[in-house]
Amino acid sequence: MRIILATRQKRANHASNQFTGYKAYLLSVLERAMNPTDLANADMLTLPSAHGATETVERLKSLLAQKRIQVFADIDHAAGAQKAGLALRPTRVLIFGNPQAGTPLLQSQQTIGLDLPLRVLVWEDEPGKVWLTYHRPGFLAKRHGVLDRDEAVEALDAGLAALVRAAASP
Fold first, then answer.
1. Residue closest to 88 by CA, chosen among 46, 54, 124
2. pTM for the whole thing?
């Protein structure tokens, strides 16, 4: 009888721990959803950078070059704003890609060409904290109905996440 009770208690504890972890996850999702200044959601990820905006962009460019991923554009919105006589905190978009990685998705559904090549936004918030924001390739594939390239999409998701984390890390 003691063995059965002990086993039931272990199962109950395990279930409780799983529920607690799930509960914590749900609370974090709700906190993000309820905080309009937090841009993280299912399709767009935002990570903090340990560096200034210029250094973060340069780190990302360097990582892309190491991986032989072409940078097609570096759009400096703050510079454009300044030319128009407007103020804007550092805000830059890098547009980059590799035809070997993106073409299979285009072969499946050409409309994904609206969202390829990939892009990452590097921006500074009002207190001066720098962030990197990007759309998950998995979300882009789903939005465009790319349903037959799971391996390619997963590789792009993992690769982009790794690049952004590396650029943002100390």
1. 124
2. 0.75
Residue type, 77: H
User: Are 93 and 27 within one domain?
Assistant: no
- 151 is in which domain, residue-wise? 39-168
- Residue 122, beta-bridge partner list: 92, 132
13 with 64, same domain: the answer is no
Domain count across the chain:
2
Tell me: do 27 and 46 sit in the same domain.
no
Q: For the chain, 170 residues long, give each residue's pLDDT as a single digit of tens.
A: 555 544 455 555 544 444 445 444 434 443 343 343 444 466 899 999 999 999 999 999 999 999 999 999 999 999 999 999 999 999 999 999 999 999 999 999 999 999 999 999 999 999 999 999 999 999 999 999 999 999 999 999 999 999 999 999 99
In the 8-state DSSP scheme, what is residue 148?
Answer: S
Do 28 and 91 belong together in one domain?
no
